[in-house]
Amino acid sequence: MKKVLDPCCGSRMMYFDKQAPSVMFCDSRSGISETLCDGRVLEIDPDVVADVTAIPFDDGQFNLVVFDPPHLDVGDGWQVKKYGKLPDNWRKFMTEAFGECWRVLAIGGTLVFKWYEYRISLSEVLKCAPCQPLFGNRRPKGSKTHWLVFFKEGETGSETD
Ligand SMILES: C[S@@+](CC[C@H](N)C(=O)[O-])C[C@H]1O[C@@H](n2cnc3c(N)ncnc32)[C@H](O)[C@@H]1O
User: Fold this and answer.
1) Inside any domain, residue 51
2) I need a surface site. Which of 19, 29, 101, 153 has the fewest CB within 10 A?
3) Contact indicator for 26, 32 with CB cutoff of 8 Å
């Protein structure tokens, strides 16, 4: 059984191996294959079409969840085609999405969250997270891209001993 979940996989740009066998690739979009204005081909073909706010897997099923949600809340250009767009009520969406990522994560598992600070700040989006991240790059400066790591402890913190 696959032990890594990417619930918003998009075109898998960040993967060294886009067919990594350990990863369950999901996205709400599928069947997309088109050439963007920069000449690059956008292909979105998840293993499972699913909504990250209603992930169709069991509690605690994955050891690693990689969560890279849409970061745009406005616009309709090529970036929206590539990265998707947050719904108007993005706080509700992000709270539900984080909640689902956390639910399917095993105790002792890791959640990696990627966030590009476009208009919504990291501090605002982290209010939707289930707990504080363990560590990450707080001030990436130029790239504006944050990578944060959350660790799912048990209630006593000793379940994985
Ligand atoms: C920032 S992109 C992910 C890029 C990806 N990490 C990559 O390496 O190419 C965000 C993705 O979230 C997807 N998405 C948007 N709303 C979603 C939802 N409700 N459930 C699942 N995926 C969603 C979009 O279709 C988009 O492909």
Assistant:
1) yes
2) 19
3) no
